[in-house]
């Protein structure tokens, strides 16, 4: 029997623990605060940001949301970030990606105070992660790590393949998997658009993390019998549904489920974990900035 890993349920449990930590900080006079900044007209981005704000409310985090028209100059966004960096009630800052083409996303990430960088995208935090001394682990890869642990999947000594090499998922995911630490110690291969014979790499792996952003590109015949499949893809494809789209992963769930020993669904897999780990990082940021210690899960 294939286990369908319930990301929603695991995320709820983590969020309950994170909420206890948030309440403890509030009791000490430090209510954790998260600022989300949206500079985009993209419908999906709006949905994700509002999900993050709702999660704040449910967790006992003070959510602040700011929007900038997408035709504003980059300086307007930088000024907003500078203000949030200076605001002591704001412990975490998230600028929703992607930003408009005329705004240099690298410059945006570098503008955020690294102590408030709850995405973990600032070069200082990337460097710390690679050096084996992470401050904020990026939310999606951290969520995948927690998901594997909760599903009882030991990564130690396993062959893992990460499909995708983005700065926000693929690269940090591979880094966490090779780390000499719990949830790491896997022999890790990173595949991407220039990889020769992806199927061969997938078939000799125990754990597959699909983060390529290509709808249903990994099919059952490409993976090994008994492997664990984590699907990071959130692709909206046109459909006759009420919303006008359907959400599919990078994995063809139907065929992959027939061979995997465990697999995450989309929706309800990695997505909810990403949001739970954003709450986690925000509480961690508040703890680091205030010196009030909490026991995060
Ligand atoms: N600075 C920044 N940080 C991010 O963390 C970030 C970002 N930019 N830009 C976009 C991506 C995408 N992302 C998701 C988070 C949750 C779900 C999620 O919860 N999805 C639900 C379904 C949601 C739906 O119905 O559309 C699920 O998979 O079950 C999806 C995608 C965070 N991102």
UniProtKB/TrEMBL annotation:
Gene3D superfamilies per record: Leucine Dehydrogenase, chain A, domain 1, NAD(P)-binding Rossmann-like Domain
Listed pathway(s): One-carbon metabolism; tetrahydrofolate interconversion
Residues bound to NADP(+): 164-166, 234
GO biological process, one term: L-histidine biosynthetic process
SUPFAM superfamilies: Aminoacid dehydrogenase-like, N-terminal domain, NAD(P)-binding Rossmann-fold domains
GO molecular function: methenyltetrahydrofolate cyclohydrolase activity; methylenetetrahydrofolate dehydrogenase (NADP+) activity
Subunit structure: Homodimer.
Family classification: Belongs to the tetrahydrofolate dehydrogenase/cyclohydrolase family.
Protein name, as recorded: Bifunctional protein FolD
Taxonomic path: Archaea, Methanobacteriati, Methanobacteriota, Stenosarchaea group, Halobacteria
């Amino acid at each position: 029997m294939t286990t369908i890993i319930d990301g929603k349920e695991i995320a709820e449990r983590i969020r309950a623990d994170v909420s206890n930590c948030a309440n403890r900080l509030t009791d000490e006079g430090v209510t954790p605060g998260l600022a989300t900044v949206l500079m985009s007209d993209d419908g999906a981005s709006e949905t994700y940001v509002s999900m993050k704000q709702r999660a704040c409310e449910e967790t006992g985090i003070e959510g602040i949301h700011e929007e900038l028209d997408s035709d504003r100059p980059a300086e307007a966004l930088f000024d907003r970030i500078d203000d949030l960096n200076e605001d002591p009630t704001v412990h975490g800052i998230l600028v929703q990606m992607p930003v408009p083409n005329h705004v240099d996303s690298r410059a945006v990430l570098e503008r955020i105070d690294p102590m408030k960088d709850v995405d973990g995208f600032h070069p200082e935090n990337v460097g710390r992660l690679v050096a084996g001394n992470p401050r904020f682990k990026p939310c999606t890869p951290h969520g995948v790590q927690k998901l594997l642990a909760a599903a009882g999947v030991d990564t130690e000594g396993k062959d893992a393949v990460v499909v995708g090499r983005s700065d926000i998922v693929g690269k940090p995911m591979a880094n966490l998997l090779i780390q000499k630490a719990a949830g790491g110690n896997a022999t890790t291969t990173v595949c991407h658009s220039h990889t020769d014979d992806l199927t061969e790499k997938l078939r000799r792996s125990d754990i597959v993390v699909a983060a390529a952003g290509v709808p249903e590109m990994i099919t059952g015949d490409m993976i090994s019998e008994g492997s664990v499949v984590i699907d990071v893809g959130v692709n909206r494809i046109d459909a006759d549904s009420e919303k006008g789209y359907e959400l599919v992963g990078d994995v063809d769930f139907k065929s992959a489920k027939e061979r995997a020993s465990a697999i995450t669904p989309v929706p309800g897999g990695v997505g909810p974990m990403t949001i739970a780990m954003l709450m986690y990082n925000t509480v961690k940021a508040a703890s680091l900035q205030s010196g009030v210690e909490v026991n995060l899960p």
